[in-house]
Specification:
The complex is a heterotrimer. Chain A is of the alpha+beta class. Chain A folds into two domains: about 5-70 and about 175-350, Aminopeptidase; about 70-160, Elongation Factor Tu (Ef-tu), domain 3 (Beta Barrel), CATH 2.40.30. Helix content of chain A is about 25%, strand content about 25%. The longest helix of chain A has 18 residues, at about 175-190. By secondary structure, chain B is of the alpha+beta class. The radius of gyration of chain B is 20 Å and the shape is globular. The mean pLDDT of chain B is about 95. The chains are: A alpha+beta, B alpha+beta, C alpha+beta.
């Protein structure tokens, strides 16, 4: 059975920026292949792994989506050997100066994000944050070397290695959303040993951080009966408001709002109660900010649910997650799927709502 | 070539009201294609059948619509209030000329009291069509107008309104003409889509790509250039060749498509540049998200002063774009991961 | 009640006391985006015996089909959204005080000092306000932030109210002379008009009715409803803001010489249904616009062209589905929608219903004989 921590450390040491998920996909494919009946790719590069169930055809299916892409940067100009960069996904620019990165050019090059001193910048408040388009990446190489190796469009990813922290926590970049991929990996391994009724599609989606394009197109292609997006949510830390965050390591969250089918939510909640998995309700009044936004409105519409793992310092290189919470997520989904049977869809019909 | 561009940019076709430019394009391309249809949103979907074995389906898309304005209110003195169709820049408007679809011409004036550089917007402007009172107006709420500016041939550089995206239409038509003249049959089953309503949200391309459901999509559109004084900070410049888009504000090109385009350009000796655009997007985004997804890229024509009435392109970039497009039609692509 | 020249037409749906009572029921329901159950129930009660097929899809849309008669019938989709803007409680209570967030678009200045109802059971609460005695002059110049407001359900009640519950303004429903005052006129007027159209469906069309969800949070229900129904044409029935109050300096005699008028957005009450040529989400198919204007002239129904500009309706999602669906929106004008109460005229309501009815009854395949 999978040991999540080392597996996850490997996952977050591999680059996989939105739109360029090839390397990370290969790793996930290797992990999922032994436990799936069928493995395939969407046209945009999402990974689809199928575990078949036992109900007679037409068999209902559930799609579990965890996005494998992560945020990063892209070279948009090369000036005297220094690289100017644009963001892929949303990054607070203030987090960048002094960060170690890897420039994925004709070869992988270590680099540092640097902030020019104020006399090299347009006049402004000398203490104000320097906007991204004035920062540079310095690889330490000569302009000539850089010219041979680097091109506009090359990717730049964070380079900090994973850090064991505390008793149970892991820190590093790309835990959004590799932590969820790890939870799904737990689930695919557990279910391999069980007989289940429904088909299960494990989907590592692409481009969630940019367009939700992976989730939208995979849902259109696979047309599942139900969809769950597994993502990260905000964990409590100084400066983040209490009412919008959740304690780290004390349980996962179950989404609630227009993006979530209320009876689907209730059914998942009951499984969590039954198996004593700690959770909190996460209010999502307008949107969930996850792949579920796309899953729900693909083709004729799909009932969706959002399950989230609390994470500190989201979209920085020092994200922090509790390994226990990842196991909890994996277990909840595993137990929920294990009890899915032919009567479930009647239970969640809107017409039967109490 | 230049007279084709002039005809295309001078024909009106604001988003949602493309019938004139659609007719112009359809008349020109009908003898050049195997099949032509117009869909429910007004897109032209034209097709050239490939004679190769098991061809992939390639969808090319250039948008026919241009930005414009729409009348919101005629006041009692006959001044016409308006709002934008697509990304109209307020700073490009004062003193500008517009022409409504029914031929009425107007000039754009600005309120003086309480208007300054910071709050200049379409809300404090109006169109003057030269009448004295409301009853004389030949225009009513909901009527649509384009910007008017004469086409200028500067030799190497060409200037007009609606280079976005009529220049790409000119490129697609020139490619079609070349295919016919040189009797070239594309390797791919190729759809030449002339889309509508791109400027208001890629709407035409959304339905067109659902209909075509291609294996690969390439949008042709203009992109900004970083080569004007204290201008947008980007590497793309006029005269350095067509730009192969790596990403823009709405989409990431499929790396396999980018490689295919780069390799094709290199093999054919066509100059090109790599493009990273931070704001703005193209039909490629809509195609990418159609149905089960489509790997896409974009062939961009560098352009200065986009969304002003004086958009400028380089004729050599245009010629090289035509060459690149034709080469891509003859170049197979591997889509395996 | 109202008397219209077109009432001589058979089968024309008319607004009477009965419709006003149903509207009251609809407007008083608490159905915020994502939680449309209360309205869904009322709609089912009303349309049950009139439709040939119904289904509730994955998002909670009601898709109902009433078949016409004869051959070559046009398949027309009509959409009205069941959801309204409102609130969601976003935190566990603290002695009866709950944080909340806005669902859909409501101006933050409309919230403070209002009674509200929570959930289908309409439990009472208030959005409290600091007494003026305790405020400073400076403070009173600032908008009270959403973050500082709380829903107060009283100190003993909080175990019945939970995080995730939805709430709406607790506004009365009143008939005021020629007007109706109520909350959620956007889009319960549309919903009721769709119900009436189902009951009086003209025979030349298959009426594909979509009572949609989640319009206020991104036109989400309409997207999947249109994909499923796959109609030939579509119309969204909505409610649009009327902005016919006097401009701020109308009583300034000097300015009056310049004949200051509201030049920017001026849909008015009493001027009839608002036909959309364009909004931010849709450029209407011009054939639909011409058809509606011809119908209005034929049956002498007043109408106005809704100012192009901001706003969006379900048509925005519908027209882009599959291979494209020529679409348009027609709205009842109402003042102050998306605040605690709106005001609409019975006249405009009746005229909108009639315009839509006749536009369907007189629709033929001729519609497609010209290019858009």
């Amino acid at each position: 059975m999978i040991d999540i921590k080392p597996f996850l450390k490997n996952l977050i040491s591999t680059s996989g920026l939105s739109g360029f998920e090839g390397t990370i996909r290969k790793q996930i494919k290797e992990a999922w292949q032994p436990f799936s009946d069928e493995l395939g790719l969407s046209r945009l590069g999402s990974l689809h792994a199928l575990k078949r169930g036992n109900l007679p055809e037409p068999r209902p299916s559930i799609l579990l989506a965890a996005h494998m892409d992560s945020i990063g940067l892209m070279v948009n100009a090369i000036i005297d050997g220094f690289l100017r960069v644009s963001e892929i996904g949303g990054i607070d620019h203030r987090v960048l100066p002094g960060q170690f990165v890897t420039v994925h050019s004709r070869k992988d090059l270590p680099g540092l994000i640097v902030q020019p001193s104020s006399h090299l910048l347009p006049p402004s408040d000398s203490n104000a944050p320097v906007p991204l388009n004035y920062l540079f990446v310095d690889t330490g190489l000569s302009a000539e070397e850089v010219g041979k190796l680097v091109r506009v469009g090359d990717l730049v990813s964070f380079a900090h290695p994973p850090l064991d922290i505390g008793k149970d926590e892991l820190s590093g970049h790309s835990l959004d959303n590799r932590a969820s991929v790890a939870a799904l990996t737990y689930c695919i391994q557990e279910l391999y040993q069980r007989e289940i009724n429904w088909d299960v599609w494990f989907v590592a989606t692409v481009q969630e951080e940019e367009t939700l394009g992976g989730a939208l197109t995979s849902a259109f292609q696979l047309r599942p009966t139900l969809g769950i997006a597994i993502d990260v949510t905000f964990a409590r830390s100084p400066g983040s408001p209490d009412h919008l965050t959740f304690p780290l390591g004390k349980g996962i969250t179950l989404g609630w709002g227009p993006n979530i089918h209320p009876i689907f939510h209730k059914e998942i909640k009951e499984i969590a109660d039954k198996f004593e998995i700690p959770y909190k309700l996460e209010a999502m009044p307008r949107h969930s900010g996850t792949d579920a936004m796309a899953l729900q409105i693909a083709a004729e519409g799909i009932p969706t649910m959002v399950i989230s793992i609390p994470l500190r310092y989201m979209h920085t290189p020092v994200e922090m997650v509790s390994i226990k919470d990842i196991y909890r997520t994996g277990r909840l989904i595993t137990e929920f799927i294990s009890q899915l049977d032919g009567t479930f869809m009647e239970k969640i019909s809107w017409e039967n709502r109490a | 070539m230049k007279s084709l561009i002039k005809t295309l940019v001078e024909t009106p076709g604001p988003s949602g009201y493309e019938s004139q430019i659609r007719q112009t394009i359809a008349d020109i391309i009908k003898p050049l294609v195997d099949h032509l249809e117009v869909d429910k949103l007004g897109n032209i979907i034209a097709r050239i059948d490939s004679h190769s074995d098991n061809p992939k389906t390639l969808m090319l898309s250039a948008h026919m619509d241009e930005i414009g304005v729409i009348a919101t209110h005629i006041d009692s003195n006959g001044f016409i209030r308006f709002t934008n169709i697509g990304g109209v820049k307020p700073e490009s408007c004062p003193g500008g000329h517009v022409r409504f679809l029914n031929g009425t011409q107007g000039v754009i004036g600005t309120e003086i009291i309480n208007t300054n550089k910071e709050n200049l917007s379409l809300e404090n402007m109006y169109i003057d069509i030269g009448i004295q009172e409301k009853e004389q107006a030949s225009v009513r709420t909901g009527d649509v107008a384009c910007f008017e500016r004469p086409f200028i041939d500067m030799g190497k550089r060409l200037v007009s309104k609606a280079m976005d995206d009529r220049i790409s239409i000119a490129i697609m038509i020139s490619a079609l003409r070349a295919l016919k003249e040189k009797d070239i049959n594309p390797i791919h089953q190729t759809f030449f889509v002339f889309s509508t309503q791109e400027e208001v949200g890629l709407r035409g391309a959304t339905t067109a790509s659902f209909i075509v459901d291609p294996d690969i999509g390439i949008a042709l559109d203009v992109t900004a250039s970083g080569d004007t004084p204290k201008g947008v900070r980007m590497e793309v410049g006029l005269g350095k060749g067509p730009a192969i888009k790596v990403r823009d504000g709405g989409m990431l090109s499929d790396p396999r498509i980018v490689d295919w385009m780069v390799n094709t350009a290199e093999a054919a000796g066509i100059p090109f540049q790599l493009e990273v655009l931070e704001k703005g997007t193209t039909d490629a985004r809509a195609i990418q998200l159609a149905r089960s997804g489509v790997p896409v890229g974009c062939l961009s024509i560098p352009c200065r002063y986009i969304h002003s009435p004086s958009e400028m392109v380089d004729i050599d970039d245009v010629e090289n774009s035509i060459r690149l497009l034709i080469s891509l039609l003859e170049q197979p692509i591997q889509l395996d991961y | 009640m109202l008397d219209k020249s077109y009432f001589y037409q058979e089968n024309i749906p008319k607004i009477n006391q009965q419709q006003i009572q149903i509207l009251e029921q609809l407007c008083q329901a608490c159905s915020v985006s994502g939680d449309e159950g209360e309205v869904r129930k009322i709609v089912f009660e009303q349309i049950g015996s009139y439709v040939d097929e119904t289904k509730v899809d994955a998002l909670g849309n009601i898709l109902a089909i009433r078949h016409g008669k004869g051959s070559n019938r046009l398949r027309i989709m009509l959409a009205a959204h069941m959801d309204e803007v409102g609130f969601m409680i976003t935190d566990e209570g603290d002695n009866g005080f709950f944080r909340f967030d806005i669902v859909g678009g409501i101006d933050e200045r409309q919230l403070v000092g209002k009674p509200i109802v929570i959930g289908e059971k309409h439990k009472p609460g208030v959005i409290g306000a600091k007494p003026i005695h305790l405020t400073t002059k400076n403070e009173r110049n600032e908008t009270i932030s959403l973050d500082s407001l709380r829903i107060d359900v009283g100190p003993e009640n909080d175990n019945h109210i939970k995080i995730g519950d939805r709430a709406t303004f607790a506004s009365p429903f009143l008939q005021l002379g020629p007007s109706i005052l109520a909350k959620a006129l956007d889009d319960r007027l549309g919903v009721l008009n769709l119900i009436e159209l189902i009951k009086h469906a003209p025979e030349n069309i298959d009426l594909l009715a979509a009572f949609t969800v989640q319009e206020e949070v991104g036109l989400r229900g309409a997207k999947v409803a249109a994909y499923t129904l796959d109609p030939q044409l579509a119309m969204a029935l909505d409610c649009t803001p009327a902005s016919d109050l006097p401009i701020w300096d109308k009583d300034n005699y000097q300015a009056a010489e310049e004949q200051l008028e509201n030049a920017h957005y001026n849909v008015r009450l009493g001027a009839g249904p608002a036909i959309y040529v364009a909004d931010r989400a849709t450029i209407a198919d011009p054939r639909w616009v011409r058809h509606l204007e011809n119908i209005a002239k034929k049956y002498q129904i007043p109408y106005q062209i809704r100012q192009p500009g901001s706003g969006g309706t379900d048509a925005g999602a519908i027209h882009l589905q599959k291979d494209g669906i020529p679409s348009i929106s027609v709205s009842v004008p109402a003042r102050y929608i998306q605040s605690s109460a709106g005001i609409a005229r019975l006249d405009d309501w009746q005229n909108t219903l009639a315009l839509v009815y006749f536009s369907l009854a007189d629709l033929t395949q001729e519609f497609f004989s010209v290019d858009r």
